[in-house]
Amino acid sequence: MSYWLTAAGGLVAALPALRELRRRPRNARLRAQAPGSFADLSQGVTHYDWLGPERGPVAVCVHGLTTPSFVWLGLARRLVAMGYRVLVYDLYGRGYSAAPRGLQTPGVFSRQLTDLLDHEGLTDDITLIGYSMGGAISAHWASENGHRLRRLILLAPAGMGHELGAMARWAVEWPVLGDWLFHMAYPTLFRKAAEAERNAASSVEDISDLQIGELDRRGFVRSVLSSLRGTLRRSAEAAHREIHATHLPVTAIWARDDKTIPLRAMGQLTQWNRDVRQVVIEEAGHGLTYTHADAVAQAIAETWDGPVI
Question: Is the pTM of this model over 0.90?
Answer without folding.
Answer: yes
